[in-house]
Amino acid sequence: MSRDARAKLRARLQEALRKEKTEEALSLYAELEKAEPTEPRWPHRRGDLLRRIGREWQAIDCYQRAVRAYSELGFVARAAAMAKVILAIDPGRTSILEEVDGAKAQELHRAKRPGPPPLPPKSEKKRRSRITDDALVLELAEDADDDEIRFVDIDIDVEDPIEIRVSPQELAPRPPTRRTLEDIDLDDIVFLDLDEEPERIDVDTLAELPSMPLFAELPPEALSRLLQAAELVELKEGDALMRTGDDSNALFVLVEGQVEVKVPGRHIGDAILLGEGDLVGESCLLDDVHRRADVIARGPVGALRIPKATLDDLVDEYAELGDVILELLGRRLISNMLQTSPVFAAFDATTRSELAALFELRRANEGLILVKPGKRSDGLYCTLLGELELFVGNETRRAGPGIIFGQRTLLSHEPSRLGVRCATEVLLLRLSAQKFTTLAAMYPTVLMYLSELASGDHGDPTS
Fold first, then answer.
1. What distance in Å separates the CA atoms of residue 374 and residue 409, rounded to the nearest whole number?
2. According to a count of CB atoms within 10 Å of the terminal CB, is the N or C end of the chain lower?
3. DSSP designation for 286
4. What pLDDT is attached to residue 18?
C-alpha cells in the first residue's frame, strides 16, 4: 500500500474516532495493521479501544500481536507493559511473558552504545563485579602541597579506566510532550484520549537511554524473572509516582508518557522531565535510603515497577549483573548531579555532556582519608558503594552511598571544615578540580556565576 493510501486510512480513522464511530474505527485499525504489519501502535490502540468498550477478550489478541511487534523493534519495556495488560485481563495467560524477547534490544544497545559483556547463563558462585574489581584505586600524589589532599589523576594515554558514559539524551532538557489548552484548537480536544498515533521515541534514542541495558544485557531466564515480578503502574495527570521520604524499594522504567522530578529546594533551571526509556527511583539500588524527590505525572503515564528485592536476588545469582546495575546507578547519579546542583546550573546541556565524560570511576581502600579538616580536597566526589565516616574533632557520623562532597572546593578553593574517611572499601565517581576548572575557564559567563556561588555550601557535607 502506498504512503498516500496509508495517510488516507489514518485520516479516515481520525474522523471515525472523532465522530465516535467505534466499529468503523476498529475496522480501520485492522486495515492499518495489515498495511503496516511491523507497526505495533495499530494492534496496541485497537486493543485499547476494544478494552474501552468492554470487549476485553478480543483486546487480548490485539495486545498479543503488539507484544511481538514491540519486541521485534527493541521496545522491550513496551512489550512487557502490553504483556502485563493481558495478564490483568486474564491472569492465566502467563506464557505471554515468554514472548517478550530482548534480542533486538541487545543488538541496538551494543550497536549504539557498547556495554558490558553478555551475562553467562548462571554464575556458579557469587563474586564481585568486574567494575568493582577493575576501577582504579585512588593513590595519594607524592607532590601534593602541604595544605591539600590530592590523588594521582588518571593519565588517559597510559591507563585504561572504567568509564560511566552518560548519553546526551539523558542530560538534554526534555520538552513537554503535551500541549496546553491555549495551544489546542477546540476541534482537536476530542482527540486527546483517542489519539491513534501515541508518541514514541525512535529506536536510536532508546538505545542510548538507561533502561536499555537493564533489558538488553539480561539472559533470557533472568529477563523472564524480572518481568514476572514487574508491575504495570498507570497514572493520571498530577498523580505521584513517588514522594520525598518514601521508602526506596523499587525501580521504575517509564514506558509511556512523561513525569516531572521535583527536587526539594531546587529553584533553578528548567523542570526536570523524564519520559520513555528513562529510569526513576534509582536510589533503590542503594541500601537503606529514602526517596529524595517528588515524581509527578504530566498527563497519562505508564511505568513498570521492579521491586528492589528482585534486583537484589538477580544480582546474587548473576554476579555480572552488578556491572549493569552499577552503570545504571552511576549514569543516573551523574545526570542528577549535573541537572540539580547549582554548581552546574550555568552549563548548557552540551557542556554538561562534556562534564559527564570527565568523571572517573575510582576505588578507595578502607581507612583512606579523602578529605581532611583544614586542607583543600582535589575535586568533587559521589559514592556508589560502601560507607564513609564524616569527622570533625572527636565527633563522627556514618554516611552511605549517594553522598556528594567536594563541591565547595571546586568553587572556593578553601580548606574543608570536615574530614571524610572510608569506613569500608568505597566505589566512587570523581571529578578532579583540574578538569573542572579547565572546562569552566572556557566559559567566562560560567566562571562569573561560579564566583557568586563560592560563598554557599551547595549541600556539601564537608562545608
1. 12
2. N
3. S
4. 86
DSSP 8-state assignment for residue 140:
B
Q: Hey, what's the cell of 120?
A: 553467562
Q: What angle do the packed helices 321-340 and 349-358 form, to 10 degrees?
A: 130
Three-class SS state of 369:
strand
C-alpha to C-alpha distance for 225 and 100, rounded to whole angstroms:
12
Distance between CA atoms of 460 and 302, rounded to whole angstroms? 35
Q: At what angle do helices 76-89 and 41-52 cross, to 10 degrees?
A: 20
Strand partners, 432: 379
Q: CA-CA distance, 375 to 173, in Å (whole number)?
A: 37
Interhelix angle 56-73/76-89, nearest 10 degrees: 160
DSSP string across 83-136: HHHHHHH-TT-GGGGGG---HHHHHHHHHHS--SPPPPS--SS----HHHHHSE
N- to C-terminal Cα distance for the chain?
66
Asked whether the CA dihedral 272, 165, 75, 223 is positive or negative, the reply is negative
CB neighbour burial string for 108-139, b if at least 16 within 10 angstroms, e if fewer = bbbebeebbeebeeeeeeeeebbbbeebbebe
- 3-class SS of residue 442: coil
* Helix ranges (DSSP H) in 146-219: 168-171, 203-207, 211-216
User: Which of 257, 248, 254 has the alpha carbon at shortest distance from 307?
Assistant: 248
- β-strands 279-280, 360-364: how paired? unpaired
Chain mean position to CA 163: 17
pLDDT in tens, 360-416: 888 899 999 999 999 988 888 988 888 899 998 888 998 877 788 888 777 777 888
β 136-137/360-364 pair status: parallel
Which residue is listed with cell 535510603?
A: 289
Q: Are strands 395-399 and 388-392 parallel, antiparallel or unpaired?
A: antiparallel
Q: Are 343 and 446 in contact (CB under 8 A)?
A: no
Out of 80-84, 136-140, 288-292, 331-335, give the one with best mean pLDDT.
Answer: 80-84
Q: What are phi and psi of 302, to 5 degrees?
A: -120, 135
CB-based contact 462:418 (threshold 8 Å): yes
